[in-house]
Write a structure and sequence with these properties.
Number of helices: 1
Largest sheet: 3 strands, mixed
Distance between the termini: 32 Å
Helix content: 10-25%
Strand content: 35-45%
Length: 112
């Protein structure tokens, strides 16, 4: 029971921290709902603006995105970039990269 409550709090904190609904200073909303419709749990999510090579840390931390669920991610990294590369890693070991996603125009990104 305690473990379930802890996971719920961590998941709520990630969504609150990641998805704020605020516009960046340039007026663009860089929030994108990441939807997992693969049938497999999405365990790790990485991103980098398309002008950089480093993926950075896992955006999900200790959380996951079960199939059929989604979360909102704010991709505003302070650089003004709109084009991002996004990497999803799944529980079965598959890795899917989506390149040059315009997060200033896209509101949903679905992994099928």
């Amino acid at each position: 029971m305690l473990q379930y409550a802890r996971r719920a709090l961590i998941g709520a904190a990630i969504i609150a921290a990641i998805g704020t609904g605020a516009l960046a200073q340039d007026g663009y909303n860089r929030e994108v709902r990441i939807i997992n419709n693969t049938g497999v749990t999405l365990t790790h999510l990485y991103s980098t603006n398309s002008g950089r090579a480093d993926w950075g840390g896992d955006l999900l931390g200790s959380s996951v995105i079960p199939s059929g669920r989604g979360i909102v991610v704010d991709f505003d990294d302070g650089t003004g970039a709109c084009l991002f590369d996004i990497r999803a890693r799944f529980a079965d070991g598959d890795v899917v990269d989506r390149r040059q996603i315009n997060v200033c125009q896209v509101s949903n990104l679905t992994f099928n």
